[in-house]
Amino acid sequence: LARASALAAPYVAGVDLNCGCPQSWACAETLGAALMGRRELVRDMVVETRARLAADGWAVGKERHVESPRGRSVSVKIRVHDDLRRTVDFLDAVVGHPQDRLVDWITIHPRTRSTPSTTPIRTEALEILTSRYAGTLPILLSGDVFDLSSLPFKPSTPGLSTLTVEEDGLPASNAPPTPGNTNLAGFMSARGLLANPALFAGAPSCPWHALETFMCNAARCPLPLKLAVHHVSEMCGPGMGADKTALLPKRDRIRLAELGTMMELVDFLDQKLEEHTGRKGGMRRDL
């Protein structure tokens, strides 16, 4: 990890060690979520990585170097154990002393290695871990971040130092949780952003503007056709959140896979945008 980080450092803002991937091929190689059982190894990896980056002249002083152009972060993403005490032991080792912690931040995915993604996140685990570590370092949430207006917890009550989580997994307040009104420093999304790149702009489902922006970027930095079609298909389908609005019906999404060139894809989307929005001229080319 230290050597790979040194090679990547000139091109990235930080290095994140993913101890959350549950895929069997990763765990078989002692990668991803398998590392949740190797806390000393993970601790040594982040220590050596930070030391290597510092030796190469990168600024790894955490908050002291946030504004530095040579600032580089070292962070860890985790899942939780069935026995949450093991997760606490893991974080105690990897985070280190609160006054001189080993990582810049952690991202918590409150599911176990074997929990299906269709099962809601463990909000009680999130509450316990956040209340224990939020005063030490920034914590990001990963998992079930599909719509910022319907996250599975509510804003913290002013004056409390813990994240307030709903027992039924549903928010009880009309005010949506944000990094500013919870003890979370931010949210991370994978499947949610794939379906709706405008998620963090507050859009409950993917708007045409996001699709147009993607196509403009794909024109400037060409993607293989199959990869472009994959992203377009995800954006045009029902979102992962409560709003299941789709840009295109299923028959049109099936048609996407039959297109043979990027120009056919552009022409098809131009036509469909006019049909569904009434706006003449197809997609914008200036985004």
Automatic annotation (TrEMBL):
GO annotation, biological process: mRNA processing
Stretches the record annotates as Disordered: 160-181
Signal sequence region: none
Domain DUS-like FMN-binding, residue spans: 1-151
Keyword entries, A-Z: Flavoprotein, FMN, mRNA processing, Oxidoreductase, tRNA processing
Gene Ontology MF: a single term: flavin adenine dinucleotide binding
Protein name from the UniProt record: tRNA-dihydrouridine(20a/20b) synthase [NAD(P)+]-like protein
